[in-house]
Task: inverse folding
């Protein structure tokens, strides 16, 4: 059966590392024992890049990519590149657009030009820049297109590739498998994330640790779940990822509630094994 290597986004394990970076090796060993092939980093927790590289190599995990705050890339992309070249990642990822840089704001043209410059620097270093979406990119612009698509229209493919977060695409009311197919070879890393949703929840970004203004008419329910334990249909997305020529799929769970993070990671990986992955 065709399949891709499976990574995990370390952001979902941050509670085990942020205040206790000395647990990095033990946590990574657990990840490897579950059957993961690689990790997508989300910070270094004060650890030296060489230590991260050597620890992952010893355990047998590939450091495939890293989410790096846009502000850090804009402030000193050379430093970001230098650190992550030591670790050995193939991809650097813009994880999120702050509100001041989103579509229909004065900051949007600024961030588009910034991503062109960052993408050129990353390309020159032998890596690739990706953009990781949420659901706010699916705002309809004056020309009738989604903001999601406008990003990739304005920034050339050789400077910016797509890291589709399939959960947020679904939350936005779109078909994740169709979007993976639409961007095809531009989708080299596909994010797998599951959720349950009822009604019309509004304050979704508070769930991923981002402070936003409360919306009073929040009348719904939304929670993340391990892959395979929510509302997503995974077979079409996995098949689309294969057809697109993706290199990796990466599991991510932003919040775990009463479920320990490693248990959530284990459940998601076990579900993919059931599917032959």
Result:
């Amino acid at each position: 059966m065709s399949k891709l290597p499976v990574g995990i986004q370390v952001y979902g394990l941050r509670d085990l590392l942020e205040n206790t970076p000395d647990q990095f090796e033990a946590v990574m060993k657990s990840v490897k024992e579950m059957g993961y092939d690689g990790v997508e980093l989300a910070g270094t927790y004060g650890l030296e890049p060489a230590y991260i590289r050597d620890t992952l190599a010893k355990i047998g995990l590939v450091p495939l990519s890293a989410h790096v705050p846009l502000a850090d890339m804009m402030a000193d992309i050379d430093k970001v590149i230098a650190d992550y070249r030591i670790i050995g990642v193939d991809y650097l990822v813009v994880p999120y657009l702050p509100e001041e840089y989103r579509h229909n704001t004065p900051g949007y043209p600024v961030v588009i030009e910034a991503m062109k410059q960052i993408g050129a620097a990353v390309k020159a270093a032998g890596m690739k820049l990706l953009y990781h979406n949420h659901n706010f990119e699916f705002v309809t612009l004056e020309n009738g297109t989604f903001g999601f698509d406008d990003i990739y229209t304005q920034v050339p493919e050789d400077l910016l590739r797509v890291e589709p977060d399939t959960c947020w695409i679904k939350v936005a009311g779109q078909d994740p498998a169709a979007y993976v197919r639409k961007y095809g070879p531009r989708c080299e890393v596909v994010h797998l994330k599951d959720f349950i949703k009822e009604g019309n929840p509004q304050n979704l970004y508070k769930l991923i640790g981002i402070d936003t203004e409360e919306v009073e008419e929040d009348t719904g329910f939304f929670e993340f779940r391990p892959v395979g334990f929510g509302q997503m249909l995974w077979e079409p997305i996995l098949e689309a990822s294969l057809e697109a020529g993706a290199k990796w799929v990466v599991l991510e769970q932003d919040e775990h509630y009463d479920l320990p993070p490693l248990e959530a990671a284990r459940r998601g990986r076990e579900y993919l094994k059931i599917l032959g992955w």
The chain has a mean pLDDT of 94. The chain has one domain: 6-193+226-274. Residues 196 and 231 are 6 Å apart (CA to CA).
